[in-house]
Design brief:
Blueprint lengths: L1 H10 L4 H21 L11 H4 L4 H10 L1
């Protein structure tokens, strides 16, 4: 926590334009990390309601026809 306080003390010396630039860069770093944290298992079951009650083999056969 002391490290963060030290950084914040430095940030206070920046002008508002520099602070906004820093904020934008921090947001970009966090978004990049967040995007890499997504796992395929987190989307398991998405769209399951679309396939509910559908004969998968019949669907595949229909798709192969054209």
């Amino acid at each position: 926590m002391q490290h963060i306080e030290s950084i914040l003390s430095e940030v206070e010396h920046l002008n508002s334009e520099e602070q906004l630039t820093l904020l934008e860069k921090l947001v970009a770093i966090i978004r990049k990390q967040k995007a890499s944290d997504v796992k395929l298992s987190s989307i398991s079951g998405v769209g399951a309601e679309i396939w509910r009650g559908m004969d998968i083999n019949k669907y595949i056969e229909t798709e192969r026809e054209w």
